[in-house]
């Protein structure tokens, strides 16, 4: 692996290493690794009985697999931790609000310490993070108004509000979609059933807009969401009443339909910037089944699927002509764990949180690079262990990534597909 682009000056691309595909096309000797861990933990023994590791050494957080990654991250790419906690407070969602220059996010599931504060045995926090003074950030836990706001997970922006995927708790609180005002925290339940059948545990959500239609036209916007059975296997939901599916919901008319199935664990969902392709992750790699002898199984999906989008014909009744997903195809399979949350930049590149950080593919499905998190966490062999990323969100000036007890901010050139023009910078000038 080389340290940087050979065309760069000494000060440019100092945080990038090159790992071209031919550098690891052949590994001599016997080798193996845990599929939940990074390629840099590959254990190999050559014919002399030695364990060579230098060829896979990594010391920089940005890994360029193809040259186009240099243009994605830029010559001044940097990575920093902007928030820490002693619990998994930085986990899912990641919704940037232009008006307040803040990001809303959720924690991982935690056991309830005091049921006078939380009515159920487990909970997840809903929080926000923003700038605080000179070159620092602060985050705080929030309390939305609705009693239905129980175990929030993924989220996106819808009509200026934070649209959250709510997992709910057993039969007491149904899984639902709830819109939260980012300033007042007043909330509204938009959907909580499929023709009377409760959802399993809604995981992630994205908003489809008709190409060429302004963002304020709610009539041409559909909410797509994934509904895996993780709640049941993690012990906080009843046995599934529905398959593992993906749905499309039209709030103005109340119309809902299933748009995709055939998943083990449908998880992250995002649309390409031109609104013509839908990407959905399948995290079957992690079953979450307590009786599973292989809870993390490399023979199961850690996959991103792509679909073509058929939009509703212009001027038609949305209940008669809803959008559809067609031409399912495998877009990418991750080499480390599974792809969880997923986002796109303005060029159509696809970013997904994986077990060693964030992987980046171009729109053709070629892996172009990685942003590695946790290089400060060594393994017993002295090889960087790294840490996973559950979800991520573009902010003006960079990419915010959630890694359970830490939030990482990457200063990169790429811009998020959902960011509004004229947003103030979330990243401080260096």
TrEMBL record:
Question: Taking every annotated instance into account, which residue ranges of this chain make up the domain SMP-30/Gluconolactonase/LRE-like region?
Answer: 238-380
The domain of life for this entry's organism is Eukaryota
What Pfam families does the entry give? SGL (PF08450)
Its protein name is SMP-30/Gluconolactonase/LRE-like region domain-containing protein
Species of provenance: Rhizoctonia solani
